[in-house]
Amino acid sequence: MARAVENYQRYRESPESWMLGRFVVPVARLDEFEATLSGQVPPVSALIGADLESDLDRIERSPVPIEVIEMKASDAQHIESAMRRISRHITLYFEISDVALIPAIRSTGARAKIRTGGVTPEAFPPAAHIAQFLEVCAASETPFKATAGLHHPLRSYRPLTYSADGPSGWMFGFLNVFIAAILARKGVSIEPVLIEESVSAFRFTGHAIEWSGHTISTEEIASARREFAISFGSCSFEEPVADLRALKLL
Questions:
Q1: Of 11, 26, 96, 172, whose Cβ has the fewest other Cβ atoms within 10 Å?
Q2: Does the reported pTM lie above 0.90?
Q3: Left, alpha or beta for 39 (phi > 0: left; psi -120 to 50: alpha)?
């Protein structure tokens, strides 16, 4: 925990700090997190576990201002009961596997969250599932974030862990997901962009991104990033930065 907080504070002072979001910490590890703090407190998103009431009580006792909560939801009733319990001043993300729950999330004013990978090949959903999630979010104007498996800008075959003998598999790219999300708002069929592997398939200019005959203006990008495709969670900040530099996109 101490190393993670130290790294986060260092990243906040780097030239790439503009792309760094909140420090994500499980409620079960808030004690460790709070014990490491000195000076400026980073913005925090808290991950709720299986015991909603206990975790919410712990959040309320925390001296750290927590403005975002993330939790898993299995059905609409779970979403509605959590929203009744949680302060309206807190932004809430519901991680779901069933896209049919997106309308229930939207009706409460919360946001959706999709898991796009993990540490085994089986943890990565099909591109069609991610496409459906993005399309339903776009149609219902539901903001979302993604988590897991998006360490790299473009879809690629990579080691899935940092272990030398760990498994490898196909990982989705964060550029693929964000560009697909924006195109979903424009009514474009997006599954092909989610599996695009070559940076040469995209054209980046000072005014737009172009892919397969489709143009996304900087105004559309800014709007989507502000209101719709909010963020992605990653256990590495350095990998995305290094990869963008290698592609000469940063």
A1: 26
A2: yes
A3: left
Copy the structure tokens of residue 178. 């964000």
What span, in angstroms and rounded, lies between the C-alpha atoms of 202 and 12? Answer: 29
Segment 130-151, tens digit of pLDDT: 999 999 999 999 999 999 989 8
* Domain boundary assignment for the chain: 115-250
Q: Which residues pair with 171 in a beta bridge?
A: 156
Bridge partners of residue 204, in order along the sequence? 209
Please, what is the end-to-end C-alpha distance for the chain in angstroms?
29
Give yes or no for a contact between 49 and 27, defined as CB atoms under 8 angstroms apart: yes
Task: Return all residues near 12 (Cβ < 8 A) that are at least 6 apart.
Answer: 20, 42
Tens digits of residue pLDDT in 74-98: 999 999 999 999 988 999 999 999 9
Phi, psi of 171, deg, nearest 5? -115, 140
Residues 240 and 163: their CA atoms lie apart, in Å, by 19
